[in-house]
Structures are given as C-alpha cells and as structure tokens.
Amino acid sequence: MVAIGIDIGGTRLKVGRVQEGYIVQRASAETPHDFDELINRLAALVAEVADGRIGVPVAAGVPGVFDDEQSMVLASPNLTFTINKPLRDRLSDAIGVKVRLGNDASVAGLAEKVYGNGEQYSDFLLATLGTGIGGGLILNDRLWEGSAGMAGEFGHLGVGGPFEKENIWQCGCGNYGCTETFASASRMEQRGYKLCGIDSLPELADMARNGDEAALTVFQDAGKALGEGFAQVVLLLDIRVMLIGGGASPVIDLLREPLLDQVVARCDGRKRENFIIEKALLGNDAGLLGAAALALS
Ligand SMILES: [Zn+2]
Questions:
Q1: Is 113 within a domain?
Q2: What's the chain's average pLDDT?
Q3: Is there a contact between 243 and 127 (Cβ–Cβ < 8 Å)?
Q4: For residue 52, is it within any domain?
C-alpha cells in the first residue's frame, strides 16, 4: 500500500511517499504565498517523492475550512491566498491523479488511528495542543469528517463555565471561552509568563512538577478546560479515549488529573478508570502520514 501525503502548512510544505506506514521518501519546501506558485511547487515535490511511480494516490491535509465538496478552502488564517480557489482540482490536474483534501487536524487523527497510538481504539478524540487546538475524531474505526471535513473542532468548544469571569478570554474565532483560549500550548506559555515570568513550557512544567503553586495553576486550569471540553464530547458520543498531541503533549502528566477530575464531575455515573488519556505518537509527521492514510481510505 503506497500513497503520497501532503501537509500544507502556513510556513512549510511537507510531502512524503508512505509505504506500509513508513515515510520512505520525503521532500519539503517553504510555502509560497501565491496560489499558482503553490500548485507548481507541490506538483514538483510530489513528482520528486513519486520517483517515477505513476498513479500513486495523493491526499493533502490543509489547515482550513472547506466548501461542501471539500474542493476549496473557504477560510484559513495562514493560507488566505488559497481562499475560494479551486485547490483540489488544480492540484489534481498538476499532479495527474485525483487528489483528496482533508482538514489537517482530522487527518492527524486518522494518522494516529492507522499508524500511531490509536490503532487499538475504535473511538477516540485526538486533541493537538499547539498554537491553537486542533481535533480529530475517530468513530467506529473510521475518521469522522462530518459534512465538509470540519468535524472535531475541539479547540472551539465553549468551556468557560467552571472559570471566573476575569479568566475567560476571547478566542481568535471571535467567541469567548473556547478550549484553546485556556489550553493551547501558546496560551499556557502566555499564562506562565503572566503568573511566573517564564514562557517556556518545559521550564514551567518542571516548576510545576517541583510544586510551584503558580506554575501548577497554569496546568490545572488548562487540564480543567480540556476536561470540560472532553466531558462534552463524552456526553455526546460516550467515547472513552483522548489522545493528546502537539507541542504540549510532553506535559500530559500535569494535565491528566485535573482533566479527569472535570470529566467525572461532568459525566454522571462514570469513573476515572473508564477513561484513557494518552500521548499521541506521531509528532510532526502526523499530518503527512494522515494525508497518506486519507489517500488510501
Ligand atoms: Zn474559538
């Protein structure tokens, strides 16, 4: 089973030929902020990793909101130059096979299912804690994309309920109290700077592990917000597994307990031991691997 996965990031394009779960050839380039140049560069990168193979299935993970056909990006803060342009069809023409597009966070969830730590679970949520929070939902062993590829937007669930009003901030999406305003890696760093004068997440985590109260507050509040969000997912879908990826996955030890406290407080009749909160496995390659898995699905 061979496929080519494309990860279209705001700063880098990553392309890889994936064979039986391994990236056997990869290529990468800066993201040009011009639509025609993007198509040309991606076609060249795909040709490079295809290495003469013809007809290999291709899919791309894109950080954006799609139209109903998943052929065009309608909104994306980092890829504004692709908005309302025929991304899927132009890419397909340039590469010579029909390319599928998927949301980057969703395909990362698919990557965990097919190649990573989610293989053993039929149903789970992947939450990627980075600049924001991305989410991917696996149900019945399959990626749940929703009507237009946008399912699993865990970062924008409203979780302000258990917090004091002065700690509820506005999100980049315009709303107040979204999960990512409490628990993205960036927000934990900002909060750490405010409370402890330190904005390095590993340093803050060490302080918290050594019992520093202010540093602990940062992770307790982030964990509580993640738990409040996950509780809503649990109430709706009765899933039991949450995988945490992205830049903040190394601090999962500090997030797990407050997260579980909030989930059991919210979800009547369920116990802590019903839930599994684990690290995602794939790191920076999740997008590329997930796109390859999407191409094969
Ligand atoms: Zn939001």
A1: no
A2: 94
A3: yes
A4: yes
